[in-house]
Amino acid sequence: MKVVSCYSIKGGVGKTATSVNMAYMAAKSGMRTLLIDLDPQGASSFYFRVKPSKKQQGKRLINASHALLKQVKASDFDNLDIIPAHMSFRNFDALLSQLKKSNNRLNKTFSKLSSEYDLIILDCPPTISYLSEAVFTASDVIFVPVIPTTLSERTYEQLLEFFKKKAFPKKRIIPFFTMVQSQKSLHKNTMNSMNNRYSRFLNSTIPFSVDIESMGEHRAPVGVFAKHRPANKAYQSLWKEMDKSIKKAK
Amino acid sequence: MITPEIQNWLVKPECGTQQLISMLEKDFQVKAESEADLDVVTLMDDFDWDVWNANSLLLRSKQNTWKMYAANEMAEAGDVDAGARFWWELPQSELKDKLKELVDLRAVMPVVDVHLSRTDLVLRNDDDKIVVRMVLTTLTDIAEQEAQRSNHFIQIKSLRGYLGPFKTAIKLMEHCLAEQLDSLSMKTMMQLHGYGPVDHDETSKNYGITEDEAVEPAIRQMSLLMLQTARHNEQGVIDDIDTEFLHQYRVSLRKTRSLLNLMKKALPADVHLKLKTLLAELASATNMLRDMDVFLLERDYYQAMLPENFSAGFSQLFRMIAADREKARKSVYKSFKSAKHSKTFDDVFKLLESEPVYASDIARKPVLKAAKKKILSRYHRLSLVGSEIHEGTPDDDVHALRIECKKLRYLMEFFAELFPKKRIRQLIKSLKKLQTILGNFNDYSVQKEFLTDYEKNHKTTPQLSAAINGLIAVLHQKQIAERQKVQQAFALFNDDQTVAEFQALFGKQKVGK
């Protein structure tokens, strides 16, 4: 079983769209997949039309793994389950901060799930927090979407510095370009320069697309409602590369 | 992923798809997707329902695709010849192998045609999320009558995290659900729809005799049962469906004659004599056909014995035998359809159904006592004959041993239901092992003789003669090899344990379990 996360310090970079489409494709390729929505905004849960069970709201997640498992819901698609966003995940990192060994807690939880799933995808909130650190520790690969602008370049560097400071292995980070508008020279130049500076960027890029924006209306991955259009093709090509790096990891 | 909870239900006959959907629409959005074409399938099986009895189901679609369902698996073979009935006529596939195992020499025939349709029902909640999945399967008769029976079956699957909606759906449909089923295999559905083998007494090996019953009525009853089996197989011979029908016909006749001989004096002497004559007549009319069948079935076995350069002669031989077979078949057909044939059977049944006469002491004896005595004395005879066999003894002694084994085995099988099942089965099992070797030895003899006679009675070419003699030579070598195994096989059979067990089961004392 592999654990991957989709992470960005900034919001609005297409992180959730990536998690959703990645989960859909992984499941389609035959991997038993679990998507865990750690973002209190709950966008990926929304895309899969899943709400958390009312019973668990307000309760403190004392026994994290037990509570997690109870939250699992089947999506509309074979091989894909979801743990929807939960308000008290907001308290999750507060809980974790109480424990010195907070990072190992998440690992323990995930190892229980390994008999049931081949792939766990974590859709992370755009923060740097104890939760994020726990996620970084638990992940085999961390996919980072980057919009090719100068500001994004800086943000990416911040992430690398954070990893250096905390002695997290940088090689886990796999960035890729997203919301690309190839007619813009800023985008083209930024992609060139970042590719030169960092060898880890994936070749496939995700274009800015109306289809991706309308995921909210359809409440479904693009593969469902825009199968033959460019955005989906881009995700398919991206998934192929992601699949390779997931298999290579560890 | 945790396996979802599944429930299988038989739906009440008065409820249809529309009704179920309107019940569910109270709490869910329901979308129904049916398979495009109503599939008409034919249930196939052999005369003995071997496929069904092995918990499998063989279905043939109109497009000549065959599907075999077993437990949770399905094997498929496409593009099958329209008239295919034997496993060897199927294209290379898992289904071909499976069928071979189940039916061997028997032909599979259409049993019944049935409509099979499948509707997928998807239930969504207010968020448009799928929360329950169902499959509705419908079986409908295709009969000439106007009233076509249908049976609906529903399989309801819960999705993880949505147990509530699953339970709600079932509650909504409860007035339409008749019976919950453990599984929804094709076979279960067919059974509930009313298909399946009719209980033939011949499928069980019991004759329905009891310990204290007198020998004469018991023997009469057993014989009647066996001869009814023979009669049941006649149509299959007339229609030339497969070679097993004739084989079973002859086996039934042979066993009856055997029973009457082994339990001599059970019936009055004149009755016995009449029956013997009549049964011999019935059997001999089919000798030629059976010989030909046996030889033709073994074509591959014989072909493997000869080198390539004999192949032309070999083919010629088989062509001639196939032609002879057809002649023999026509003659049996005529014979079975004749008035004389019916009369002979009528006479036989009349003789057996007449009141017991008790012409001798044995006729009156309780059958268990009589059986034990016979079996034990046969066994002692067999021990004697077998223990005298070594490398130097003539072949005739080996044949004699084979006959003794056969008689003992028949006796044990005839009266098996009167003895503890496991123990007698074990003895029969060891006896069978010895019989296999003796049987092979005999087969080679018989085959050599068949070929020798064939050559004598037919015009041959040098090629044909060469093929025949080549086969005889190989068979001879095989016979010699088998002969050498006999002594050891007998010792293996007749060890101290076996000796003791025969005494224990068939000696004068009462038998424990």
Give the SSE layout.
The complex is a heterodimer of chains A (250) and B (513).
Chain A: E1 2-6, H1 15-28, E2 33-37, H2 43-47, H3 64-70, E3 73-74, E4 80-83, H4 92-97, H5 102-113, E5 119-123, H6 130-138, E6 141-146, H7 150-166, E7 173-177, H8 185-197, H9 210-213, H10 215-218, H11 222-225, H12 230-248
Parallel strand pairs in A: 1-5, 1-6, 2-4, 2-5, 6-7
Antiparallel strand pairs in A: 3-4
Chain B: E1 6-11, H1 17-24, E2 29-34, E3 39-45, H2 50-53, E4 56-61, E5 66-70, E6 73-77, H3 94-103, E7 109-124, E8 130-141, E9 150-158, H4 163-173, E10 177-181, H5 186-193, H6 215-238, H7 243-262, H8 269-284, H9 287-297, H10 299-303, H11 311-337, H12 339-353, H13 361-364, H14 367-387, H15 395-414, H16 421-457, H17 462-483, H18 486-493, H19 496-506
Antiparallel strand pairs in B: 1-9, 1-10, 2-7, 3-4, 3-7, 4-5, 5-6, 7-8, 8-9
Structure description:
The complex is a heterodimer of chains A (250) and B (513). Chain A has 250 residues and is α/β, with parallel strands linked by helices. Chain A has helices spanning 15-28, 43-47, 64-70, 92-97, 102-113, 130-138, 150-166, 185-197, 210-213, 215-218, 222-225, 230-248, and strands at residues 2-6, 33-37, 73-74, 80-83, 119-123, 141-146, 173-177. Chain A has a 7-stranded mixed β-sheet, with helices on both faces. In chain A, helix 7 (150-166) links the parallel strand 6 (141-146) and strand 7. Mean pLDDT of chain A is 84; it is low at 94-102. By secondary structure, chain B is an alpha+beta fold. In chain B, helix 7 (243-262) crosses helix 15 (395-414) and helix 11 (311-337) crosses helix 17. The model of chain B has no long low-confidence stretch (mean pLDDT 89). In chain B, strand 5 and strand 6 form a beta hairpin. Chain B contains 19 helices and 10 strands. In chain B, strands 1, 2, 3, 4, 5, 6, 7, 8, 9 and 10 form a 10-stranded antiparallel β-sheet that branches. The A-B interface holds A 32, 48-51, 53, 71-74, 76, 79, 81, 116-117, 219 and B 1-2, 4, 127-130, 159-162.
